[in-house]
Amino acid sequence: MNTSAWLSNRNRSVALAVIALLMIFVSIYLTQHFFEVRFPKGLSGGSICNINEFFNCDKTTNSPLAAPFNMPISVFGGVIGLLVLIGSFFKSEKYSQTMYAVLLANFVGCIVLFLYSLLHLSSICLFCSFYYVLSGLALFIYFKTTNSFKPSAGILAAALIAVMIAGLGVRQFVAAKQAEVDNADALLKDSVMSEYAKLDKVIFDASSAPAKINSVANAPLKMVIFSDFECPACRMLSEQLPEILKDYKDKIDISYFFYPLDRACNPGMTRDLHMHACKAAAAVLCMPNADFHELHDTLFNNQNNFASGFVDQLITQNNIEGCVNDKTTQDRLKQIILSAEPVDIRSTPTFLLNGAKFEGMVPYYKLKIILDSLLAGKTQ
Questions:
Q1: Does the residue 21 lie in any domain?
Q2: What DSSP designation does 221 have?
Q3: Residue that is last in its domain, among 137, 162, 181
Q4: Judging by DSSP bridges, how do beta strands 356-359 and 252-258 pair with one another?
Q5: How many CB atoms lie within 10 A of CB 42?
Q6: pLDDT recorded at residue 1
Q7: What is the Cβ-side half-sphere exposure of residue 81, based on CA atoms within 13 angstroms?
Q8: How many domains is the chain built from?
Q9: In whole angstroms, what separates CA 225 from the centre of its chain?
Q10: pTM of the model
Q11: CA angle, 151 as apex, 148 and 155 as ends, to 5°?
């Protein structure tokens, strides 16, 4: 039996109904995924569509074409599926001819979206691709079973109205969700900036900093870090630095002061706490020609190995045992620690941001609110 003969009986209706239901299911999933990605309510377990960097639905969902005019494009796919479902039950030559035209336009759009995803986003959304295949199958069935290409203006107008009503309805829902997010962001910003206003302000000259994370002359943002290479919270702060530099590299100057919580070099310590911190800081001082960023990251990344001799191995490998133990190095390290007295450091990490004193870790989303407000000149 040839294809046309097979599609001329009730199998056509069954095939279209199955294809339509799958189109609607995929569209509902993609629409739900759109809201989960754009308006997350908490920690997400991820999408089953996100297999790797290439097969990734999130990239598509975050792209501009995912929601032209704030209308998720997947909603239109669901309406097309509904129109196909109607056509599977009601036999009408005019309706078939109109759906042939609608599905042809829809499939052209699918090809455009697929090429955009492949060539511009360098990724493929598997559920989107499944919808494209379903659209092609529905178009093929109408192509094989429709006698002529004469769409009805009335039916076409009705279909267009249905698409626009669905799109505008969801657009209003998206706008409402965005308003919720904006309101929540405003409340969060007020809360964070209220906390910032209560922080102690410290006048401190960082020109003698022994190391720089980022050097920007006359930067509007000035960060001074007092840190201990053996301090777990300091390591967490160090892991935020790449994010800070990514967002503010040309706008922030970051100075770095060693502040080991170790009696071996810190006169302010009355008990042993981090017994390898002084030696780690001295090792950095003894390698002035080394890349500080690299040393900084190496020490923090191997923090858990300090007790098993990592710092000693680093010193031996670089042949700086004499420098580390030299009185000149020890005196310089103590001087760096004593220079922080105006800040009154009670724990590490402590850092100054345009003079405001922070003690301990600050979640990056809060830090970003403060940095943005400082750049905008809305606080001092």
A1: yes
A2: E
A3: 181
A4: unpaired
A5: 4
A6: 42
A7: 22
A8: 2
A9: 25
A10: 0.55
A11: 140
pLDDT for residue 380 is more than 80:
no
Contact 171, 53 (CB under 8 A): no
The answer to the question of residue 232 being in a domain is yes
162 and 247 fall within a common domain: no
Residues 255 and 362 in one domain: yes
Is the residue at 337 inside a domain?
Answer: yes
Q: What is the four-CA torsion angle of 219, 220, 221, 226, rounded to 10 degrees?
A: 60
Per-residue pLDDT reduced to its tens digit, 257-274: 999 999 999 998 888 788
Where among 132, 160, 181 does a domain terminate? 181
Residue 201 lies in a domain: no
- In tens, the pLDDT along 272-320 reads 788 999 999 999 999 988 889 899 999 999 998 998 899 999 999 999 9
Pick from 234, 232, 208, 212: nearest CA to 223: 212
Name the pLDDT band for 152 (thresholds 50, 70, 90).
Answer: confident
Per-residue model confidence (pLDDT) at position 57: 80
Q: Are residues 145 and 234 in the same domain?
A: no
Six-digit token pair at 129? 């691709």
pLDDT(43) > 60: no
Pick from 145, 146, 151, 139: nearest CA to 103 = 139
> Do residue 359 and residue 221 come from a single domain?
yes
**Nearest CA-CA partner of 201 in 304, 353, 329:** 353
The backbone torsions φ and ψ at residue 71, rounded to the nearest 5 degrees and listed phi first, read: -115, 110
The boundaries of the domain holding residue 363 are 211-375
CATH number for the domain harbouring residue 331: 3.40.30.10
CA–CA gap between residue 353 and residue 224 (Å, rounded): 7
Q: What is the DSSP letter of 90?
A: S
Q: What is the pLDDT of residues 95-140, one digit of tens each?
A: 988 899 999 999 999 999 999 989 988 888 899 999 999 999 999 9
Q: How many CB atoms lie within 10 A of CB 268?
A: 13
Is residue 131 domain-shared with residue 226, that is, in the same domain?
no
